[in-house]
Amino acid sequence: MNKICGTGVALITPFNVDGSIDYLSLDKLIVKVTQNGINFLVVLGTTGESTSISKSEKQELIKHIVKFNDNKLPLVLGIGGNNTNNLIEEINNTDLTPFDAVLSVTPYYNKPSQEGLYQHYSAISKVCPVPIILYNVPSRTGVNMSAELTLRLARDFNNITAIKEASGDIDQIKEILNNKPESFDVLSGDDGLTLEIIKNGGGGVISVIGQSHPFEFSSLVNHALDGDFMNAKVFHDQLDSYYHYLYSEGNPSGVKALLSLQGICKNNLRLPLVPISNKLYMDLKNFLDNEIN
What we know:
By secondary structure, the chain is an alpha/beta fold.
């Protein structure tokens, strides 16, 4: 049975005021999500600001999370890039023993063709010792992985076992869901589309809001996976009001602001990312206060 299903969270990387990694806040966050229904953790994804974390910091962060998690939840490691040879080298030089899968985003900026994407993942598949989750997020990468290509990869490579689909194109996602091999999972990459994707056969989500609201979001997913769409929609509607605050000025700026208001971490990011504007922060604070009261 695939361990990577249900509700996963793409962990933020908390920072201290001096820019160093705030491990105490990270531990607090992991405890929160572990105790509130989250099924797996994604380490060093986009939400974790992986592009602005050094190689040595990544190694230390991985070591810390693996030790602190202590096999409580399955772990997924973000390993992606737009230089295939470098990516192969990184996979070969990373101890993936503690991880149940890697999440590998489509190459960004250089905008490969669909055949280029196929050859990229083919090369990764041949060297990766753990399952691979494709990650399609054209709003960030500038290239969309078509449903046809996703299905081709799913059929051709046994260790390509899932996709995190964040294209926002529900017709494209439905085409994958309707034609995929039984062993291949589709995970929502958009919190707001999770219910719709599971309704159509999706296996879960890699979530952002799942770390600020782990109980509510995992409840949404669990109800939906059980076919109880009425109760799933109750949680969906409850969380839907947060998405403007979380995403209108970018991710993870929004969720870090929310987590700081919840007392989980400080509202610090690394350049080129910055905290959300004071206006949006105060709007979020007022909204949160009203929700609590």
